[in-house]
């Protein structure tokens, strides 16, 4: 059976193509810097948005039209696996990601939930055998069920902590079973609605304890995936403990967890925290924390997580610049934690949306590669910070200066001459790179 | 004497040029739709940002380095006029805009202020004779001087209302003298800091009275410039009465002023009001209110008016789309109400910044023209709203339906079938237009 | 049968009471200005939040524990009516509000939906006979069902326009049947997700046509309730056409609807639009548009509609000040469009939350009354705007001044002397009023 | 000579006083918990807002009327010292704070700047001898002068690093000279305007190097003040490195500086970072970082640092709760980093504004003390987290649980029972405490 009968494998047709079911910019085989686009970009499909979600919003019931919805329960879960692998194949993505509840319905008991998952995991494993698609990461959804109303590892209720632990334990086992390359922790309800009834100190301590136990158990079972924390500042909570990359860094350093975790940076979460996507990537990169990326975008005029497919080529270019400078994402990838809009409810829109996302990251990759090759930013930086490579600047960087030597130097300075930052020229240059990127095609 | 000795007239060199002092996209003579770029785009230079401002911010003294700052008072004002006309010529802008206080220093009395202005206006007029540069608009700065601390036309102090009226009267006369094509009202302090001591009703009534007097006086002196209100939601006030285009529309309708005013839409003010630039333009266009544009951009992550030079070609494209659909801006233009960044303090950066702004609007114009030519959006709209062109939809639009006929129709509907909005495809299409725009050059 | 068996009728016990199921500040019989609190405050219960909603959020399934959820379909709908009237009685609210879908489940066809509604409306009517509870307003939910994915009256699909009309027609009839005092239009999806596929002009014209038809039909059936539009800037849409009070005013004036509509101002919607609650109330009041109030509050640090129960006595005080100055709300009331937090999931929390809301509005009412009695703000205003009561100011207000007379006056002004706005003193005074409000009790 | 001739020493007159020049709630001698209000609250006056600033804003020249402005240069600086000590005495504040440039004008050279400072410091020291007013903290303004356009310790220009070091060195010496109890670092321009030309890694390393040198130099000269970093997320920069308390914690931990620095938490900076004031205080407290407080408030609807005098008694109550739980502020204090509004330009408004701020913190202190005495929050926490004091919860906290034991426990759980968070009751309780706080006076 086929779930997307009107869609064939998506082909690259080039920038001028008017075929909505073709790539215009993502050419999987195109070599950049000795690697194919496919290898470097490591696109991942988010199971939840693509196969499980219904496009409901707080004011509306689901609008998505999906042909697997004629089934229910485990039957639907099985149909989704089939549809998923057909989709992976046709869109040409090599990775996927899921939460436990995305792939299999919760049972009446934890044991039954496990059983449901085992059934589906076996099915997924079968499909993986016939495919070169890999598990980028899995995770436990410890936020949707009302039992997590006050948090999971940071719940005020120890039973919920225990239940959450059991759920993560199971996912670590599944991750190992499926060869997952990373494991993600997004603390959807690890935060608070109000400080007025919250023991912030205990909750953060417990969260750290939970992470330590996860590290221990992964080691125990020999699951060597990269652990990733995905920061988000708020929503659904008022304050989420993993607010942004630097806050999460503080948490890791405080609890001595920094060697076991990297970050999964989501573009829209950056925006909600008041940062650009590239800021979060840069901070993570500079601190050795850039693990993986949830590739989406938000609407800067809206105050919630819109999880849009990436459409802004400025953003994909600057993101890819950071990723290139990071030497790639290692075991991480570009997971489309993105949903077609509520108004894009057709099943075919899943293709349109992913084609767009992949194309726009391909543009970003191509342009960023060119910027790196031409050392555009590197030359700016070299010139701008040149004063730290000699004289007093070199002394500062090498630890040979102190306030007394610096004061002496300052007292004898004739004039301080700064150089213009030339931001307008730099921005215009980026536009030139974008607009010239495909001129020779 | 020359004020920009290292800069020659800026030439168009094409998309691949690496000359920072050349246009890459703005080719004044390029014909689009039977008109040159120069004619259609009607670029204006903002006197305040370019010749008067010093790049200070609330935490910093001015950083701008300007060679006319060796002078003071009226001497500096005269030097600025010379520099301005040299700049207009070299950058190739055909319009300029100013506030009264930009061109001449305030005197110790209103009479002396007038006198200073008269001197400079005569000088400007002389320069205009030798040039094809025109006055896009002028305006009175009724917000900087502490006398406007509680507002100008909406001040709690009737003396300030009178003083403000005198200042606008003078500017109307100067506008006439210099052949100004528009006259702008931006109500910098026409709003409130707090409702707790504000008679909102009286203040808005007074503001309307002020506008009526301005209309009357312009008529009296035969000054037939288009009057424009520039909405902004806040800053410096907590609430500015001309919050956004639709709020200002309410004001105009309430006071019967709608035939005498159009809007001057500023991109950054749109953002501060929680709107996109194109929303404000669209609302104004659909309601016959689109008069002129303050062409800049804000930073969506910052909560104040950054007045950046336009660098986002998405934004310039969608703006130019609205302007084309409006049949151009009439007597209005694209005024760069934008400042080089504080870190771009060199005098030459004034060129860099304006080149960038002009180039990016040229890109927007070119791409939007192509979109219009190909009826990209028009076809989407035609298809999407087709149901209003026949049957029940036609009845609705033609006023032939009522709740009873509609209910009868609805009760007999088998099924309601909506079409996908295809937003992801539309956004990808815009990217294609951008990336393909210069492929044949 | 009783649905709230552990709760008796809530009594007023005074400010020091520690009984969570007692009023501390709301004393229904307390006379203020010759009217009881109960008469003036006209509290309304929102059926949706209190009896229908489950406290789900975009990341979580419903957490609410409700004893009527043991039933399903029409049985649950009937149970909810019983529970509702028991709740109204016990909490002591005299009004309630509902959407069509709150009171009865949608059927497989519009006809069946009507039938379900008829059954429940008859039941409600029965309960109303034995009670002094009245219908503050009803409305049609034209946003939840996926058929409204592209809007209702502003849908791109004429069938949806027709279906929406049928639904509103039915609600007008039900409003009449139940003696509803107002009828509300909240345009949940009357706006756009993106301008890129939106015919803004047509959509707003259609919206106006829809309102005209509603006015006509109400007249036809003799339903003389006050029509109310409830502004909200965004969510679920990106831009909602009734953005705020002033935007909605523009809409009403543009389409000549201003005599038929007032506004239902919601506190949280004000915040989302970048305004204070009191701003929206003030604008509505000054323009004769203040019809009713959705009494809730938002979290200024969160970007979505949290619909919290009013807890901020500054806000309730300033709101009640506007309402008192408006001469009360006429046929309108204070509807708690508010939900207990997701973490306040017990059925009893419905009482806690409403007690809090009623108490906090009672505080606001008491303090605002005292402020009005003492003419605190009135004296500030009188003093501050005194210059408009004589001389040049009087001329301005009376239309006897023009730019020439004002210039003459300004040229002869020696000095302009403004008075301090004294905001710090005013704010401190409000705190004094709050902290002294219950000192004699 | 007297600078505030119409103002006598401000006296406490109680909650009902209508004297604008009297305290209503701040009674310095009132004993709470065995300490006087004056001792615990440690109010500080910010020299810059009170004696140096002119109430200008980005769109307006200074509106402040100050009688010391008849002088200029060093004469004005000296007059300000006199005025300041008269003000401290009359308002009854025991602490003050300054930046180098607040107290003395910059000279033409660094040497001259030092000399100016030495003159004024000697004068201040003289005044301190006759007074019991102490220096809460001083700091170097390394952001106003254009030389800091690209940062100070994080400047791209090593000369600026050196100059900044010299300025801080001097302030450390002055701090020691005047017995300063703390020393503050606010990194006004330590951040970036754009990542596009920023070496974020080098800049943060340099910032850390700068702090290390400061620590070393303070030790060398025996200046044992508490070092404080004041976080702020942005403004004037686009991104400031000390974004918020947790980000700053990351910085301190990364560079091993955590033993040498605490935080100076400003309310308005919290808001700009998307946090509540109490969140920042709580995070700092729980992590041993709460050093001092900049007591002001922002406007949540405005996107810039309004530095308002504290007027919200909810905020002062929750702040004082954190401070009480911290055991007070140690060497820190409550510094009014707040300015009278631009419209409150009279010299007397300086008193009104500070009286308001002190009164509102006194209210907060009183109410918070009562809340602590009654263990309101403590009982909520005890009850809510009770499950961590026995059984599986105790095991978790004591490190005796692991994923396997927790899974076993979870598999055998019958049901998970959460307790309602009762947020509505808690908020109502706080209102009761506020409204009852002065009922017995
Ligand atoms: Co994500
Ligand atoms: Co997201
Ligand atoms: Co402007
Ligand atoms: Co602006
Ligand atoms: Co509402
Ligand atoms: Co709401
Ligand atoms: Co501060
Ligand atoms: Co501040």
Q: What's the arrangement of secondary structure elements?
A:
The structure is a homotetramer of 441-residue chains.
Chain A: E1 11-12, E2 22-23, E3 31-32, E4 35-36, H1 37-41, E5 43-46, H2 47-52, H3 73-91, E6 95-99, H4 100-103, H5 110-129, E7 134-139, H6 158-177, E8 182-185, E9 191-192, H7 200-221, E10 226-229, E11 239-240, H8 245-254, E12 261-266, H9 267-272, H10 277-286, E13 290-294, H11 313-325, E14 334-336, H12 349-373, H13 376-384, H14 391-397, H15 403-411, H16 423-436
Parallel strand pairs in A: 1-2, 5-6, 5-14, 6-7, 7-8, 8-10, 10-12, 12-13, 13-14
Antiparallel strand pairs in A: 3-4, 9-11
Helix pairs in contact in A: 3-5, 5-6, 6-7, 10-11, 11-12
The structure holds cobalt (II) ion (8 copies).
Write up this protein:
The structure is a homotetramer of 441-residue chains. The first copy, chain A, is of the alpha/beta class and 441 residues long. Chain A folds into two domains: 11-374, Alpha-Beta Barrel (TIM Barrel); 377-437, no CATH class. Chain A has 16 helices and 14 strands. Chain A has helices at 37-41, 47-52, 73-91, 100-103, 110-129, 158-177, 200-221, 245-254, 267-272, 277-286, 313-325, 349-373, 376-384, 391-397, 403-411, 423-436, and strands spanning 11-12, 22-23, 31-32, 35-36, 43-46, 95-99, 134-139, 182-185, 191-192, 226-229, 239-240, 261-266, 290-294, 334-336. Chain A has an eight-stranded parallel β-barrel with strand order 5-6-7-8-10-12-13-14, surrounded by four helices. In chain A, helix 11 (313-325) links the parallel strand 13 and strand 14. In chain A, helix 3 (73-91) packs parallel to helix 5, helix 10 (277-286) packs parallel to helix 11 and helix 11 packs across helix 12. The longest helix of chain A is centred in the C-terminal third of the chain and has 25 residues, at 349-373. The model of chain A has no long low-confidence stretch (mean pLDDT 97). Chains in contact: A-B, A-C, A-D, B-C, B-D, C-D. Chains A and D meet through helix 6, helix 7, helix 8, helix 10 and helix 13 of A and helix 6, helix 7, helix 8, helix 10 and helix 13 of D. The complex binds cobalt (II) ion (CO) (8 copies). One cobalt (II) ion (CO) binds at residues 266, 268-269, 305, 307, 337 of chain B.
């Amino acid at each position: 059976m086929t779930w997307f009968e009107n869609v064939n494998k998506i082909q690259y047709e080039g920038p001028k193509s008017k075929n909505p079911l073709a790539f215009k910019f993502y050419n999987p085989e195109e070599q950049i810097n000795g690697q194919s686009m496919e290898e470097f970009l490591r696109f991942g499909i988010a199971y939840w948005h693509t196969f499980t979600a219904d496009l409901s919003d707080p004011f509306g019931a689901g609008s998505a039209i999906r042909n697997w919805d004629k089934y229910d329960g485990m039957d639907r879960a099985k149909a989704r696996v089939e549809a998923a692998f057909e989709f992976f194949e046709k869109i040409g993505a090599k990775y996927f990601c899921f939460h436990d509840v995305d792939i299999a319905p919760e049972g009446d008991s934890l044991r039954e939930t496990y059983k449901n998952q085992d059934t589906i995991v076996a099915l997924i494993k079968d499909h993986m055998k016939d495919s070169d698609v890999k598990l980028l990461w899995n995770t436990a959804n410890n936020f949707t069920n009302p039992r997590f109303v006050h948090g999971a590892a940071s719940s005020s209720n120890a039973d919920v902590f225990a239940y959450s632990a059991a759920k993560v334990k199971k996912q670590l086992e599944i991750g190992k079973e499926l060869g997952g390359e990373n494991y993600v922790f997004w603390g959807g309800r690890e935060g608070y609605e109000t400080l007025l009834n919250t023991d912030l100190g205990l909750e953060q301590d417990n969260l750290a304890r939970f992470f330590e136990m996860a590290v221990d158990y992964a080691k125990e079972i020999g699951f060597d995936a990269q652990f990733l924390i995905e920061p988000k500042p708020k929503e659904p909570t008022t304050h989420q403990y993993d607010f942004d990359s630097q806050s999460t860094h503080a948490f890791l350093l405080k609890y001595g967890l920094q060697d076991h975790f990297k970050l999964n940076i989501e573009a829209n979460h950056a925006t909600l925290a008041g940062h650009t996507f590239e800021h979060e990537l840069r901070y993570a990169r500079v601190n050795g924390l850039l693990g993986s990326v949830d590739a989406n975008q938000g609407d800067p005029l809206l105050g919630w997580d819109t999880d849009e497919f990436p459409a802004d080529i400025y953003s994909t270019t600057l993101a890819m610049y950071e990723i290139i400078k990071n030497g790639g994402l290692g075991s991480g990838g570009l997971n489309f934690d993105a949903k077609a809009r509520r108004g894009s409810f057709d099943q075919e829109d899943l293709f349109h949306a992913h084609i767009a996302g992949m194309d726009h990251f391909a543009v970003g990759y191509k342009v960023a590669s060119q910027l790196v090759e031409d050392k555009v930013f590197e030359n700016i930086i070299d010139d701008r910070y040149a004063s730290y490579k000699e004289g007093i600047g070199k002394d500062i960087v090498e630890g040979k200066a102190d306030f007394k030597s610096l004061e002496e130097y300052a007292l004898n300075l004739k004039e301080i001459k700064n150089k213009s930052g030339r931001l307008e020229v730099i921005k215009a240059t980026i536009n030139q790179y974008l607009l010239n990127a495909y001129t020779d095609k």
